[in-house]
Amino acid sequence: MDLKQISQAINEQFKDYDIGNIQKFRVKIKGLSKPKSWKLFPPEPLNENWTFHIGGRTELQFNLGNEEEGLRYGFAFSLEPSINLPDPSILYPKIRRLNYIIQTKPYLFQNLNMWIWQNDKRTEITSVELIKEKDIVTNNFIFIGKVKQNPSITEILETLDSLYPIYKEVESGNTLEASSKESDENIIKKFEFQKKEYKLPKQRTGSVIAKEINIQVRHSFIQQKLYEKLIEQYGNENVTCEQYYGLNRIDVVVKDKQDFYFYEVKTGNTARDCIRDAFGQLMDYCYFPNIQKAKKIFIVGESKPDVQTNQYIEFLQQKLKLPIDYITVEI
User: Fold this and answer.
1) What b/e readout covers 10-30, taking b as 16+ CB neighbours within 10 angstroms?
2) What is the pLDDT of residue 246?
3) Within the chain, how many helices (H) and strands (E) appear?
4) Where does the pLDDT of residue 209 fall: very low under 50, low under 70, confident under 90, or very high at 90 and above?
5) Can you tell me the distance from the alpha carbon of 10 to that of 142, in angstroms, rounded to the nearest whole number?
6) Looking at per-residue confidence, does 113 or 290 come out higher?
7) How far is CA 268 from each of CA 204, 216, 271, 272, 276, rounded to the nearest angstrom?
8) Spatial CA neighbour of 41 closest among 69, 66, 13
9) pLDDT at residue 220, rounded to an integer
10) Are 303 and 328 in contact (CB under 8 A)?
11) What is the per-residue pLDDT for 176?
């Protein structure tokens, strides 16, 4: 299929995904009466070799394009000035917000790549990393996503849909939660368990060396081991991985009758490191803004806690009445 056929096929099917709400979301955060179109991509590509989502010129844009290796699909920042974007510097705060997500939630980008077009020359395709100051140059095109020969429409939509929560966080900043009553209601809505099958992605299996030294690979192995152990205890239908709740993604969730347990996996050098890294996330997942969504919350790491760390957990449980515990999972 050519770019026009791909865009049209996506427009026919994207309403079946969360990203199907993108134009409604844009209306809300931008204070519009209605969008230019309810579609995702223009019916005619903006160029024979590339196109981006309707309204995306001043945004973190969902982008399709032809590369030497095949079709690219993901999102991008285009720093090329135009009539609709005379000053690309308005994108800088959004780049900063995306960098924060890359830094704090690197697992969201594990199966993606990035590259930059500079003066009609492309950098190497690499794993996703922080966008550097030297790369924020007028006319640069910064892309994060995938490239593949003849990907299916389903694969393209699943990839774009997985990026949609990141897009929403980048585009809304703090304004969505602070000003939208509808958004506040979404934040405090009842937590709903969503079962999906989980298998360790092939891209994360890695070599023996990668398993030993790559933090992301190691996180995946711990998560897989935990997932299997919890299935033995609670049953396959009651355990799920990487469940989204709002803009967050919880590593593992267990449904125990009417109760939910949240598990956050960390790869710190010590149990205390893991607790420090996970504590804020779990407090946010479980309690923000003012309701308790999980009956129990667990921090998961490879290291066994020492005496002082065990005393710290007991203090949190007994003095602060937090339903928190630490679990050791060795791989």
Assistant:
1) bbeebeebebbebbebbebbe
2) 67
3) 10, 12
4) low
5) 23
6) 113
7) 18, 12, 7, 8, 9
8) 13
9) 86
10) yes
11) 36
Cis omega (within 30 of 0) for bond into 88: no
**d(Cα 180, Cα 182) in Å, to the nearest integer?**
5
Going by C-alpha positions, the residue among 239, 142, 245 that lies closest to residue 187 is 245
Token pair, residue 21, equals: 């709400």
Phi then psi dihedrals of residue 316, to 5 deg? -60, -35
Q: Are 273 and 326 contacting, i.e. CB atoms less than 8 angstroms apart?
A: no
Q: Which residue has the tokens 């579609």?
A: 39
Q: Are 88 and 80 in contact (CB under 8 A)?
A: yes
pLDDT, tens digit (0-9, with 9 covering 90-100), for 74-128: 999 999 999 999 999 999 999 999 998 898 888 889 899 999 999 889 999 999 9
Q: How far is CA 229 from the centre of its chain?
A: 25
Amino acid at 43: P
In whole angstroms, give the CA distance from residue 15 to residue 37: 13
- Residue 243, strand partner residues: 250
- Kindly state the DSSP code that residue 124 receives in the 8-state scheme: -
Strand ranges, E, within 184-312: 239-245, 248-256, 259-265, 296-301
Q: How confident is the model at residue 157 (pLDDT cuts 50, 70, 90)?
A: very high
- Tokens of residue 248, six digits: 């967050």
* Prior bond of 289 cis (ω within 30°): yes
Start-end of H helices in 37-152: 92-104
CA gap 218, 72 in Å, rounded: 28
Bridge partner list, 78: 141
